[in-house]
Design a protein that fits this description.
Chain lengths: 93, 427
């Protein structure tokens, strides 16, 4: 994904935080996804955020180098986009 | 652990219910005899009041919101209510009889985005369904609604409570559900009406008929009965006060649809504060089978299923044995044993006790004997602290929390929410 492109939570993704974990269900897929602490942190920061912003947020919170953080964030976003829980924002003309 | 169980356990670990049942309408367009509700006297809240209550429920971290009535679709602002619920991030279920749902309404519901629509259907045979609802033509309208909802991509759960008017209803609806692409759940329990009247029980199916219809199964002690008992004692018979909170149409909060105890008035305080301050929370959080005197010592415990509210209505003790649960457990055991004999109660049983009600000891295969119902000091302290648990007045009068005219919605009382969220993925 382009580092400047924003994603947002899918409108049919329903989620709640339980202590240090976020649980998300999609009204379509009927599955519960339970994120670990880093995934939960990211989920709460990826609505209307760019990849660069997410990487910066992860690096500010966790002790991780730029390359690792970027790879992890990209993997997280790609996976959730593929599952329909995150949607890329429409490209501005 | 499936998805529903996971969400429930996460929520309960955090001291909050996973779901809340919000009754938005105090009226219905059906007249089912088995309905536990009495309508037309509680009154209904405005959209603004409901919005504020939903905000409080969302702030308390509740995941699922079941929106029901009465018949919720009788409210002209129902779509606005559902939209607000979605805005506040709930997974929303709509409980309805479907009578008013046409193609356009189904499309509007689909656009809002619902987790499921739950519809009561009493039989796959039109005249049998209509006999229960007492509304001619209701079967055709309801099935039409199901088709419209399915056509718009919504998940539909058909629910069939057993009544004498449609004893084979579950079987016929199950087949119809398959054809329509719906999930199906059947239930075997009817609770008393909320004003204490026992009209619903006039159509209650006997345990013998439930057995014949395959809705309950024979039971006999297994090879590791001690372990089975131990596991059951640690379980909660239902989700009352934990996962099944109910907001009545006037905003009062109950622990479940049938437990006649008001925990709070949500027009005056938010759910989070209500849960922090209601003393009954302590009662409900510990309400496993081990808290139920008599039952915890009964040899038929593993065969038994109970509703505390029915125990209160029937036997006057929310936390004690009661006749209809005992009857069902006896039938299950008798069916497996080949025959059943109830020996005279042991000498230490209370003189005034119904001689057929447990707890029982199995004295030999197929022979059970009612034995002493041991109540501990802790049981007595609980009953003294929460007087409604074992009130002193006669059963029919003491249970009236709300008096209503006859009529009601075909909603099953269940605090254990059916949830078709089956899969868990840990990321
Ligand atoms: S006493 Fe009756 S209600 Fe209690 S466990 Fe035994 S059979 Fe069930
Ligand atoms: S079984 Fe249902 S109605 Fe009965 S007490 Fe439990 S939650 Fe309430």
């Amino acid at each position: 994904m382009n580092a400047q492109r924003t994603v947002h939570h899918a409108s049919d993704a329903v989620w709640r935080r339980y202590d240090d974990q976020v649980a998300v269900i999609s009204l379509d897929a009927s599955r519960v996804r339970l994120f670990n602490a880093v995934g939960s942190f990211l989920w709460e920061r990826c609505d209307n955020a760019t990849l660069d912003q997410m990487v910066a947020a992860v690096r500010a919170r966790f002790d991780v180098d730029e390359a690792t953080a970027r790879a992890d964030v990209e993997g997280f976003v790609d996976d959730l986009v593929a599952r329909g829980l995150l949607r890329p924002a429409a490209v501005q003309p | 652990m499936n998805g529903a169980e996971l969400l429930r356990s996460l929520a309960l670990r955090g001291g909050r219910p996973m779901g809340v049942h919000l009754q938005v309408a105090d009226r219905c367009n059906h007249a089912c005899q088995h309905c536990y509700q009495v309508q037309g006297e509680k009154g209904e809240l405005s959209f603004e009041q409901l919005r504020s209550i939903m905000d409080g429920i969302a702030d308390a971290g509740v995941f699922t919101l079941n929106v029901s009535g009465g018949e919720a679709t009788l409210r002209p602002d129902l779509l606005d209510i559902l939209r607000h619920a979605r805005t506040r991030g709930f997974a929303v279920r709509l409980f309805t009889n479907g009578f008013l749902i046409d193609e356009a309404y189904a499309a509007a519901l689909a656009a809002i985005g619902l987790l499921e629509v739950h519809i009561s259907l009493y039989s796959g045979v039109a005249h049998e369904h209509d006999a229960v609802t007492r509304v001619p033509g209701s079967f055709a309208r309801t099935v039409g609604a199901v088709r419209a909802l399915r056509g718009n991509g919504l998940r539909v759960v058909l629910k069939t409570p057993a009544t004498t008017l449609s004893v084979q209803g579950a079987r016929t609806v199950e087949a119809l559900a398959r054809d329509l692409g719906c999930a199906h759940t059947a239930s075997t329990d009817l609770t008393m009406r909320e004003d204490g009247a026992d009209d619903p029980w006039a159509v209650r199916v006997t345990p013998e008929d439930l057995l014949r219809e395959g809705m309950i199964a024979p039971w006999q002690p297994g090879p590791d009965e001690a372990l089975a008992r131990e596991e059951k004692l640690a379980k909660y018979p239902c989700g009352v006060g934990r996962s099944g909170l109910v907001v009545l149409p006037d905003g009062r909060l109950q622990a479940c649809t049938d437990t006649p105890n008001i925990l709070a008035d949500l027009t005056q305080q938010g759910l989070g504060e209500a849960l922090r301050t209601a003393p009954e929370r302590e009662l409900f959080e510990g309400l496993t089978w081990s808290r139920v005197h008599g039952c915890r010592d009964c040899d038929l415990l593993p065969a038994c299923q109970r509703c505390h509210a029915t125990a209160l209505h029937e036997g006057g003790d929310y936390l004690g044995p009661y006749a209809s649960a005992c009857a069902r457990a006896r039938v299950r055991y008798g069916a497996a044993a080949g025959s059943l004999e109830v020996a005279p109660p042991s000498a230490d049983c209370d003189a005034g006790r119904d001689p057929l009600v447990g707890p029982y000891a199995i004295v030999s295969p197929g022979v059970i004997r009612p034995v002493h119902d041991v109540r501990t000091a802790a049981d007595e302290a609980l009953a003294a602290r929460f007087a409604w648990v074992r009130p002193a007045r006669p059963a029919a009068a003491r249970l009236v929390t709300i008096r209503r005219k006859a009529g009601g919605a075909p909603l099953q009382s269940s605090a254990v929410e059916p949830c078709s969220v089956p899969t868990v993925e840990r990321v």
